[in-house]
Amino acid sequence: MAQNAAFIAPKELKRLSQLTPWRTAFAIAFDWAVIAASIAVIEWTGSWLVWLLALPVIAGRMHAFGALMHDFAHYRFIPNKKVSDWVGDIFLAWPIGATVEGYRRNHLAHHNYTNTGRDPDWVVKLGTREYTFPQEMRFAILHFLGYFIGASSWRDIQLAAGRMQAEDMTGWGYKLARGGYYLAIGVIVLWAGVWREYLLYWVVPYLTLFFLFLYVRSVAEHFGETMEPLNELQGTRTVEPHFWERWFFCPHNMNYHLDHHLYPSVPFYNLPQLNAALMRESRFTDNAHLTRGYATGLFREVWLDGWRRKWRSRAMEAAE
Question: What share of the chain is helix, strand, coil (3-state, %, to 5)?
Fold first, then answer.
């Protein structure tokens, strides 16, 4: 980051890096409230159509938990690291099957060795069909459809579990606390007789759309034919999303990924200000990988352009 420090004045960076804990606390409460409200509306209407419409909303807030967990991994909540980790685990990480510390070890290595053989996130994805582009259209369609039945999600879970397990340095006390957390949830669900609701309102969105949203964002951050992995400004992508995409693909400003890589001390709620400052710098705008929209720009860059070239090639061969 040192070579890009001049993008932002030290005084401005210090201001943008200041923590405002209530904003993170509000974001956590908001995400849980949206899930609770979605479930309440489903129960009130008793409609399967409403349940289907609520699935992406619930999955989007689960994705938001992951986005906030990312801030906790960078200690961007409160100065007390121990308390911060417990809050992050109980309200964000454990509900989606992760741990703050396990994610932190993996993620900080990703920051230190981005897109190299020492980047655990890059290594586990590089060369897989899911992250190799151009991608065959038939495979891409089947892969996306696979999320709706949980097949693609299971593949993602296997990749993540192996990576996080290798980074697990927690003691037995922590493991017992986490196990007790899941056991308590299981007991409450069975005792209250709401196992069906738990499956429909939590397990189904988690095993389907949550991982779909996570996959799209993961591709957006570092992958695609147009990326230059070892170029700091061209190996990481910032996406300017359409309004609706913020709810699903990039909750809590996760779209500003290049900005975050350059200045990881800036908490999520100040990333829009950081981006505005960077966009005033021609040295940044002239060299950064900036994309407009996930369903538009990213889809075109990563998938559609490759398919178009293949179609044109086939048309030319057929014409000869």
Answer: 75, 0, 25
